[in-house]
Amino acid sequence: MREAATQATTAGIGDVVPLLELHAVRKSYGPREALRGVSVAVARGEFVALLGPNGAGKSTLFQLLTGLFNADAGRIAVCGHDIRDDPVGALAGIGVVFQQATLDLDLSVEANLKFHARLHGLGKRHARARIDDALARVGLAGRASDPVRELSGGNRRKVELARALVHEPAVLLMDEATVGLDPASRRQLLDEVLRLRDRGVAVLWATHLVDEAEAADRVVVLHLGRVLADGPPDALVHAAGTATLAEAFLRMTGGAGIA
Ligand SMILES: Nc1ncnc2c1ncn2[C@@H]1O[C@H](COP(=O)(O)OP(=O)(O)OP(=O)(O)O)[C@@H](O)[C@H]1O
């Protein structure tokens, strides 16, 4: 993991070169503008929360980042690879946990991860080592042969995180990944991702939950397809003149979303 992140960083000039970069990204569905010129950057070892109420454009942004479709305008680059010119290079640097569960419930934990490893072109021996490492990282070392169907919701999310890590991405995308989890499981997942951040991974964590955003190095507030604020949680609270991030978020979005 560290190696992948380091390689990506040293390819640029100094530590400030972002591993994930969106510049003036626009996307419309027919006449509806979902993203109206969004710019966001995430550096190595940085945890950025993308905080937005329903309809802000978070899912659209993640769909662009995962190559599901192209932006109408603007630039997206991962580890210096433009997602339009070099989608394979860009997507190789990304690990994703989607909002919707995407595991095959009838397969074992290990089989799900093996499938992902093959998709990323990992050889058998390398895949074996990476899968063991990723499962140990999320505390599921002893569950490799269990059918996913037998795991709790919290453990299934951990398997999804392990799967996202198998190919050692420099950038981790978490799309409302804690939806449906109880508070303890939510905290565990957040803590694990913070540890990955500390190992150098660049994390973009989409959420509508203010308490999750409070743990971030920077919070990007997205509303109706525009970035309303981008900075450390304290700075956002200070700029809004409120007592809490929740109040600042409410004020910025006109009460459109709070949790
Ligand atoms: N396939 C689509 N066709 C038409 N409009 C869409 C489509 N997907 C999203 N939109 C619209 O684009 C805007 C942004 O939606 P998006 O789902 O990206 O927001 P979001 O922040 O992920 O919201 P949520 O938290 O509710 O998932 C909304 O106005 C939404 O109605």
Give structural attributes.
about 260 residues; alpha/beta; six-stranded mixed sheet; four-stranded antiparallel sheet; 10 strands; about 40% helix; globular; disordered N terminus; binds adenosine-5'-triphosphate
- The first-to-last residue Cα distance is 33 Å
CATH topology of the largest domain: Rossmann fold
CATH class of the largest domain: Alpha Beta
What is the CATH architecture annotation of the largest domain?
3-Layer(aba) Sandwich
Give me the count of strands. Answer: 10
Averaged pLDDT = 89
Superfamily (CATH H level) name of the largest domain: P-loop containing nucleotide triphosphate hydrolases
Distinct bound molecules = adenosine-5'-triphosphate
**Succession of helices and strands:** HEEEHEEHEHHHEHEHEEHH
The proportion of residues forming helix, as a percent range, comes to 25-40%
Structural features, described:
- The chain has helices spanning 2-10, 58-65, 87-92, 109-119, 124-137, 153-165, 183-198, 210-213, 233-240, 245-253, and strands spanning 20-29, 32-42, 47-51, 73-78, 81-82, 94-97, 171-175, 202-207, 218-223, 226-231.
- It is α/β, with parallel strands linked by helices and 259 residues long.
- The protein has two domains: 1-93 and 177-259, 3-Layer(aba) Sandwich (Rossmann fold); 105-168, no CATH class.
- It has a six-stranded mixed beta sheet, with helices on both faces. Strands 2-1-4-5 form a four-stranded antiparallel beta sheet.
- α4 runs parallel beside α6 and α5 (124-137) crosses α6 (153-165).
- The longest helix is centred in the C-terminal third of the chain and has 16 residues, at 183-198.
- Mean pLDDT is 89; it is low at 1-14.
- Residues 29, 32, 34, 52, 54-60, 208 line the site of adenosine-5'-triphosphate.
- GO terms for molecular function: ATP binding.
- It comes from Aromatoleum bremense.
